[in-house]
Design brief:
The protein is built from two helices and three strands. By secondary structure, it is of the alpha+beta class. It has a single domain, classed as Chitinase A, domain 3. The chain has a three-stranded antiparallel β-sheet. The longest helix has 13 residues. The protein is elongated and about 45 Å long. The termini are far apart. Its main location: other. Keywords: Lysosome, Secreted, Signal. It is found in: Lysosome; Secreted. InterPro entries: Chitinase_insertion_sf. GO terms for molecular function: oligosaccharide binding.
């Protein structure tokens, strides 16, 4: 068992298939959701959102630092809205 990376289209497919409730994990400043697979194993999916990216940008700014966001190129189009 163990997770792996997913890209934007896979994330959207999971949302469409399972229609989960998004939750906010304040410890890691990231949205996530849970869903059961066909064998009823629970899976957790953490994926960047505008709120999580904004939180990271604000933190970098407060330190006078820049950052690189890996998910930008593989994520959802709206990720660019914050830049």
């Amino acid at each position: 068992f163990g997770g792996g990376p997913i890209i934007g289209s896979e994330y959207l497919a999971l949302l469409e298939k399972y229609r989960p409730a998004l939750r906010w994990n304040s410890d890691v400043a990231e949205h996530f959701f849970m869903y059961p697979d066909d064998r009823n194993y629970q899976h957790a999916v953490f994926y960047p959102s505008l709120m999580s990216i904004s939180t990271r940008l604000e933190e970098a700014h407060s330190w006078g630092a820049g950052l690189s966001i890996w998910e930008i190129g593989q994520g959802l189009d709206y990720f660019f809205d914050l830049l």
